[in-house]
Amino acid sequence: MASTPPDEQDDDHDRLLREAARGDQHALRQLLEAHRGRLRRMVALRIDSRLAARVDASDVVQEAMLDAAKKLADYERERPLPLYPWLHRLAAERLAAAHRHHFRNGRCVGREEPCGSWLDPSAAMLVDQLVAGDTTPGHGLLREEQRQRVREALGRLAPADREILVMRYLEDLTFPEIAAIRGVTEGAAKMRHLRAIEKVRSLLRDDASGPLP
Predict the structure, then answer these.
(1) Distance (Å, rounded) from C-alpha 99 to C-alpha 26?
(2) Measured between alpha carbons, how far is residue 154 from residues 126, 175, 196 in Å?
(3) Quick one: CA dihedral 159, 162, 164, 167, positive or negative?
(4) Pairing between strand 107-108 and 103-104?
(5) Distance, CA of 29 to CA of 170 (rounded, Å)
(6) pLDDT tens per residue across span 162-207
(7) What is the pTM of this model?
(8) For residue 8, which of 25, 32, 24, 40 has the smallest C-alpha distance?
């Protein structure tokens, strides 16, 4: 699980933000490095497996960090949302740009086959999170059947609903963070999460897949 940076509301964080926005390079490094691990996990969960063979998630994060350094003075003055959700958006924009650069019309540059499937690197991880963790050896086949049914159900969700589940269960984001990133209220984020879980349940044929979170 990714470590959570210090509370963005404390005095030390605000001091670092003000100093970094005024050009203090030491403060800037401290401020951004506290979030690098979480951002790398965010990118690694979303980068297409074929793109990952060419572009490292750390490179995408570094580009987002450079964007943040250039825009930090404006961010500090306006504070449109908490720092980590803002950085998350910058990283998402850089990742989208990398996909556009390497892929054309849904196909990888230099290849004939389509690029990846939904949430390519994180699909199996999300299925694991949503399937009951019964480790009894004799239940292995049943667990594999459960995983397949849950994966099929997730594949039928709208991308926005799957994204909520990835944020909550794989990125371990709080609902206030999810709300800020998605540009909705905290109540709306919680409702969308519940809706996504209920949709998965409704798409499963029966309750044999075990409880969902």
Answers:
(1) 32
(2) 9, 20, 9
(3) negative
(4) antiparallel
(5) 26
(6) 899 999 999 999 999 999 999 999 999 999 999 999 988 887 755 4
(7) 0.79
(8) 32
